[in-house]
Write a structure and sequence with these properties.
Elements: H1 3-13, E1 26-28, E2 34-36, H2 37-42, E3 50-52, E4 59-61, E5 66-67, H3 69-89, E6 104-106, E7 111-113, H4 115-119, E8 128-130, H5 131-240, H6 244-263, H7 281-286, E9 303-305, E10 311-314, E11 333-335, E12 344-350, E13 356-363, E14 379-387, E15 390-395, E16 400-403, E17 408-414, E18 419-424, E19 429-432, E20 443-448, E21 460-463
Antiparallel strand pairs: 1-2, 1-5, 3-4, 6-7, 6-8, 9-10, 10-21, 11-20, 12-17, 12-21, 13-14, 13-20, 14-15, 15-16, 17-18, 18-19
Helix pairs in contact: 1-3, 5-6
């Protein structure tokens, strides 16, 4: 091994494998490897008692760090000797052209020169310096560059320390945030459970104290007319068995009494519940809001669509439109242009005042010709009419109820779970939600004013725009 290799080996032994610089304030760990104390401590994350050796990944404890004064002294001595040793082993080169030692350096041509080369015409006006002077000059530049690099290295080391600290802090912050989220959702669930309990209690109380009592009272009120009718039927049957003269004598009085009974009409009490808002209901539904538009090809000729396909209104005079297979020809209906085959979807519709309407979903294959029953399995709708201070609702099961006025209806569809629900958007409460549904094939939003009626003039339906929050 020559002198140059020995010098390089000495340099390698005195180099810290972390910073790749001359080892400073060295410590030796249990596994036998040595590093700069500062460099090794930077490998320690947070307040952990142990960390790993950068060389062999062995476990290191803080108590295992042993200062190595002999290595520190050797590092200082080696650093001083290295430049002298290199100068002693590096001799001057010989000029191939003149056979003389090359003792000068031409900065323009960046080459070594001997005494004869220095006298050559091509180097006459060049900046030529003795090799030692040039060497010292370039060493100064190298030293300056090294200082800049060391300063930059220190900046990166400091950044590395900050990154490690931030990593530790971020892990802790992430854990704390997860615990906060779990706790917050727990409180929300408990809040909603409590609200649900209160809702059900109020519903039970209202049903017991109001609706059931009203029905019992109506039962009692209907019993008397029934008894009167039964008594009159018996009286008529007895008259039928009498002689002709007796029948004629009693006929006038009997018919007058029957006429009074025939004018009476049985009336059923309107049933309904007080709406109770559900906390955060609309905020949750709005995350599934979909941009729905009307399909012009399906619209009944009596229905006129707005230019943006968001509003439909009834016209008494039908439009001259092609009778294509997609178009409703009798039912005053129009479908949404969008289809649903999976996922969750939500849209809202303004029904306005004094408007009869039917809203919901239907199969894409629903019959467009002739009448369409609201109880058909091809449609799942909620029908209603808003008039004055009351809305009258009829669902797909033909269940009738009277509720507070509805001006905006929200429809939510969860295809996979077979769930459709109708909401009062203004009061943020549930109107109706059928159960035990299995959806198959493509579904489309359904909008209708029902069957044509001479005595009724429908208003308009407006699909609410997407709200970007």
């Amino acid at each position: 091994m020559d002198a140059r290799d020995l010098i390089e080996n000495l340099k390698a032994e005195l180099t810290c494998s972390i910073c790749l610089g001359c080892i400073t304030d060295p410590v030796t760990v249990k596994c036998g490897h040595s590093f700069c104390t500062g460099c090794l401590l930077q490998c320690k994350e947070g307040d952990d008692e142990t960390f790993t050796c950068p060389e062999c990944r062995g476990v290191i404890r803080h108590s295992d760090l042993v200062p190595n004064k002999q290595l520190q002294n050797l590092s200082i001595t080696g650093k001083r000797l290295r430049s002298h040793l290199l100068q002693s082993v590096v001799g001057l080169t010989t000029c191939d052209e003149h056979g003389e030692k090359e003792k000068f350096f031409c900065e323009e041509d960046q080459r070594l020169l001997c005494d004869s080369c220095l006298l050559a015409p091509e180097h006459k006006d060049h900046h030529v310096l003795p090799l030692e002077t040039v060497t010292d000059k370039y060493k100064d530049k190298l030293q300056e560059t090294r200082n800049i690099l060391q300063k930059k290295e220190q900046e990166f080391k400091m950044s590395l320390v900050k990154v490690r600290r931030r990593k530790t802090r971020f892990k802790k912050d992430t854990y704390d945030l997860k615990q906060s989220i779990i706790s917050e959702y727990g409180r929300m669930r408990q809040f909603l459970r409590d609200e649900q309990c209160q809702y059900l209690k109020k519903l039970d109380q209202e049903s017991r104290d109001s609706v059931i009592n009203k029905l019992e009272e109506r039962k009692a009120e209907l019993s008397q007319p029934i008894q009167n009718l039964q008594r009159m039927i018996i009286e008529i049957e007895e008259n039928l068995d009498k002689a002709p003269l007796e029948v004629l004598q009693d006929m006038t009085g009997t018919l007058e009494k029957n006429e009074e009974c025939l004018l009476q009409k049985p009336e059923l009490p309107s049933l309904g519940w007080t709406p109770y808002s559900i906390t955060a209901l609309r905020e949750m539904l709005m995350s599934f809001q979909r941009d729905i538009t009307f399909d012009p090809e399906s619209a009944n000729p009596h229905l006129t669509l707005s230019e943006d396909l968001k509003k439909v209104k009834y016209g008494s005079v039908p439009q001259d439109l092609p009778n294509n297979k997609e178009r409703f020809d009798y039912v005053l209906a129009v479908l949404g242009a969008q289809t649903c085959t999976s996922g969750k979807h939500y849209w809202e519709v303004e029904v306005g005042d004094k408007t009869e309407w039917e809203l919901g979903i239907c199969k894409d294959s629903v019959s467009r010709k002739g009448q369409l029953s609201s109880s058909s399995e091809d449609v799942r709708i909620l029908a209603g009419c808003t008039s004055g201070n009351c809305s009258f609702i009829l669902n797909s099961h033909n269940d009738f109820q009277s509720i507070q006025p509805i001006h905006k209806v929200g429809i939510f569809l969860d295809y996979e779970k077979g769930h459709i629900a109708f909401y009062n958007v203004i009061d943020r409460c549930l109107i109706y939600s059928p159960s035990n549904i299995v959806f198959e094939g493509r579904l489309r939003p359904y909008f209708s004013f029902g069957m044509p009626k001479e005595e009724c003039t429908p208003g308009s339906l407006i699909i609410c725009p997407i709200i970007n929050e």
